[in-house]
TrEMBL record:
Sugar phosphate transporter domain location: 11-297
Pfam assignment, any one: TPT
Keywords: Membrane, Transmembrane, Transmembrane helix
Name listed for the protein in its UniProt record: Sugar phosphate transporter domain containing protein
Cellular component terms (Gene Ontology): membrane
Annotated spans, Disordered: 324-351
Compartment(s): Membrane
Membrane topology: Multi-pass membrane protein
Transmembrane segments: 7-26, 38-63, 75-93, 99-124, 131-150, 156-180, 192-211, 223-245, 252-273, 279-299
Organism: Quillaja saponaria (Soap bark tree)
Amino acid sequence: MISKQHLLTYIYLLVYISLSSGVILYNKWVLSAKYFNFSYPITLTMIHMGFSGTVAFFLIRVLKVVSPVNMTFKIYATCVVPISAFFAASLWFGNTAYLYISVAFIQMLKALMPVATFITAVICGTEKLRFDVFLNMVLVSVGVVISSYGEIHFNVIGTVYQVTGIIAEALRLVLTQVLLQKKGLTLNPITSLYYIAPCCFVFLFVPWYFLEKPPMEDLHFQFNFWIFFSNALCALALNFSTFLVIGRSGAVTIRVAGVLKDWILIALSTVLFPESKITGLNITGYAIALCGVVVYNYLKVNDVRSSEPPVLSIQDGAAKEVKTEKKESVYMPDDSDMKSNGVHSRNDSFSDSRFDEEAATLISSSRLSHLGRSFSRHIA
């Protein structure tokens, strides 16, 4: 007999997979010339950021669901601004790729995410070069190359956009570790959106003004409120579903769910968008790449478990966090629940983060687990 807690966990996982897949497919439908024909990815991303920032402001300043962190101008200017710049770039380039290549091929290219983040972390000195990890990265890269070779409708422009978005996201992840964690700053999903979404909106406004504003004015664009509202609402809901899933089940579970989601998404995209064709070589290459990612995640999880301190109770952990805050000492979070949320500890190499769905969470693992489980109990 399945307990109520296990049932809720399965429901959260189902909601996460549904929202994560749904947001990607929804974005593709909105941007595709064959469907809604809104070929303005920067505008769409700005709508998401504007909506998320507004909701976060309402929750913090009006409803006071959570309290804002002690954010100084210096920390905001030197940490949040550069991180937001790379985050905005990753969303811009990633969403633009939908105009040129299929959802299935985009998911296959995203297997390069751990490769890009690992290389970036090694260059920045936050990760040591290991032979076993390097072999896994080579395996992932070979798989992606095979998958790309088998792509029927290969488009250079779309591929460059997607790879550039991956590189920007890798830089953002490394900056998150180097800049925010070393200052002891931790943000939950709401405060993360509160500080980062407006800054992303400003960065996106510059290319939007020169690239998308003129053609939108020439075409006398008419805004469809319900389409864009529902799209932005789904993107916002994905942030909180990720938060709940990791808080209840941990990062390992959400990685497994992410792999399952990718396969479901590839299959669904070929059904919903018949022009998307996948070949046996596509699947073979992607399967090889995923094998590398799975083995890499296994190695990293073992590293995390071997270096974990004794587990504290929830009460002791909460008390320790309060004490740490009062002393204003640098907070060094655990590794176990980070990779799917954009924050990584010093020994983590940012393996499996995917931010195409705009889940801009910057929360530390111990708080994520504690807050997520607490919130889960309240809504259970």
